[in-house]
């Protein structure tokens, strides 16, 4: 152990940056706090423009060799990273639960195995990447994916490692080098990823990790002229700042932003299924960008739906996320808790009614909340809360349901509960959303495109779409004539 090492739930975590294959400390630090009980985890190196520049320089220096590495070798190394993740699932799970307060059981059984899958999927997809040649008046067209260069990846705190590796894995598979900037509220598992990647044989400088506050280090990263791609998941205001920062260099952006997604429940739906889908939106204390926080129910079944919802929600256990029986953990940070409470208090003051919840709990916990009597143009309906707060509105026709669903500035996802296949087809065609789930929620295949419409984002990632973003696509056109015989 060194002065830069924390012991988190029995796991050693280095608090320094990872730049050019080495640990680098900063003169200043920031404090990392656990949302479970508000206890201080430790002090983390706080990056500045100097660390940002060093990380980009390391990525630039490592890029030519990594880009030239054969696909099969890049894929082998990414599979080795996945192996390392699988060996350390328990370490990653307990550290991330301590750091962001999400359920330990979910980290063990779903989230961390998915981290390994992210690396395996893009490693395998890389080896199948081929548009196939095609002919134009006797000329052959060949499409290739050329690695673009150093990529800056800025990731959020609600699922830190999984969302980071959704970006890191395809960027590395594409042959790019990476500078990862994890959220300052949840930096720890990114540090463990650096250890795992190094042990797997990822060359120095191919993956760099810098920690710190967005305005202090993020601007330096996103405005750097040597950065060739920027991928960001987070809020609309931060995305606007990143876009402005990247504009001078015309750096291509992929932005996965907020949501205010609807859950449409028609009278012909299986109401028990619809209620289960609705209560599922409290997952991760409502800190899920895809969450269907606006429940829209056909008026004829609204009373029965609400009765069943209240009964189902009463069975949800909120508490310590390390407890196997817990269903909902804490809010990530006191600042976020105050933001959530502010939204709810303003809604109540404006005439909304809390069917359940509507108040803070002890510590950093917010009671699961359902608000009714809300106006379509109200703040609580139009703006992302990012907490365990749902609204319920009714509709009387299919047209009204679609209108309400689409009537926000967002378009990330939508969920539909109906027993009528024809209705499902009609409604899904009309919904503005990057992903629509019908009678299900959060089924996510990495080969499918992922992203949002309107203020919910720019671009799509997943499968070939990820490689299209992280690469410069080249079409080579070859004539059938002009060849010399060297035989």
Counting helices, strands and paired strands, the structural category is alpha/beta
Distance between the termini: 65 Å
What's the gyration radius in Å?
24 Å
Q: How many E strands?
A: 22
Q: How many strands, which pairing sense, and closed or not: the largest β-sheet?
A: 7 strands, mixed
Strand content: 15-25%
Strand order of the largest sheet: 16-17-18-15-14-19-20
Average residue-wise pLDDT? 96
| Residues in helices, as a percent range | 25-40%
Basic shape = globular
Which tags fit this structure?
single chain, 487 residues, alpha/beta, 22 strands
What would your notes on this structure say?
The protein is of the alpha/beta class. The chain has 15 helices and 22 strands. It has helices at 49-68, 71-87, 89-100, 104-128, 160-173, 188-199, 214-222, 236-247, 271-280, 299-313, 334-349, 379-382, 398-406, 421-430, 463-470; strands at 5-8, 11-14, 17-19, 22-24, 29-33, 40-45, 134-136, 139-147, 151-154, 178-181, 207-209, 229-233, 253-256, 262-265, 294-298, 353-356, 369-372, 389-395, 413-417, 435-438, 457-458, 471-478. It has a seven-stranded mixed β-sheet with strand order 16-17-18-15-14-19-20, sandwiched between helices. It has a six-stranded mixed β-sheet with strand order 11-10-9-12-13-21, with helices on both faces. Helix 3 (89-100) crosses helix 4 (104-128). The longest helix is centred in the N-terminal third of the chain and has 25 residues, at 104-128.
């Amino acid at each position: 152990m060194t002065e830069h090492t924390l012991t988190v739930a029995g796991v050693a975590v280095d608090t320094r940056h990872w730049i050019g294959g080495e640990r680098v400390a900063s003169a200043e630090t920031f404090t990392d706090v656990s949302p479970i009980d508000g206890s201080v985890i430790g002090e983390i190196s706080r990056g500045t423009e100097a660390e940002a520049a060093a990380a980009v320089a390391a990525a630039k220096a490592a890029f030519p060799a990594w880009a030239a590495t054969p696909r099969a070798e890049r894929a082998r190394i990414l599979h080795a990273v996945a192996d390392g993740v699988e060996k350390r699932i328990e370490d990653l799970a307990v550290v991330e639960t301590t750091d962001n307060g999400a359920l330990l059981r979910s980290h063990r059984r779903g989230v961390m195995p998915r981290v390994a899958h992210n690396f395996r999927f893009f490693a395998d997809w890389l080896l199948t990447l081929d548009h196939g040649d095609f002919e134009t008046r006797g000329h052959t067209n060949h499409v290739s994916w050329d690695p673009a260069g150093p990529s800056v990846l800025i990731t959020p705190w609600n699922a830190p490692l999984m969302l980071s590796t959704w970006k890191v894995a395809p960027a590395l598979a594409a042959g790019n080098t990476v500078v990862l900037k994890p959220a300052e509220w949840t930096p720890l598992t990114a540090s463990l990823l650096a250890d795992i990647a190094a042990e797997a044989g990822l060359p120095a400088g191919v993956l760099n990790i810098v920690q710190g506050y967005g305005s202090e280090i993020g601007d330096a990263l996103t405005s750097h002229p040597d950065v060739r791609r920027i991928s960001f998941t987070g809020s609309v205001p931060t995305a606007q700042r990143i876009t402005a920062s990247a504009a001078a260099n015309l750096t291509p952006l992929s932005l996965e932003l907020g949501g205010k997604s609807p859950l449409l429940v028609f009278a012909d739906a299986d109401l028990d299924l619809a209620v289960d889908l609705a209560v599922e939106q409290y997952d991760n204390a409502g800190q899920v960008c895809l969450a269907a926080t606006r429940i829209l129910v056909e008026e004829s079944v609204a009373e029965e739906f609400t009765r069943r919802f209240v009964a189902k929600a009463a069975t949800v256990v909120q508490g310590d996320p390390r407890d196997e029986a817990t269903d909902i953990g804490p809010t990530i940070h006191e600042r976020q808790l105050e933001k959530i409470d502010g939204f709810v208090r303003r809604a109540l003051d404006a005439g909304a009614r809390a069917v359940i919840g509507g108040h803070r709990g002890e510590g950093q916990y917010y009671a699961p909340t359902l608000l009714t009597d809300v106006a379509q143009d109200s703040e609580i309906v139009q703006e992302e809360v990012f907490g365990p707060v749902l609204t319920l509105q009714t509709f009387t026709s299919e047209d009204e349901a679609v209108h309400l669903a689409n009537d926000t500035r967002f378009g990330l996802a939508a969920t539909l509960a109906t027993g009528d296949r024809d209705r499902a087809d009609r409604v899904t065609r009309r919904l503005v959303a990057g992903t629509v789930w019908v009678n299900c929620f959060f089924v996510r295949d990495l080969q499918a495109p992922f992203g949002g419409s309107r203020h919910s984002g720019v671009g799509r990632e997943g499968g070939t779409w990820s490689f299209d973003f992280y690469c410069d696509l080249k079409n080579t056109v070859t004539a059938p004539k002009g060849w010399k015989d060297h035989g």
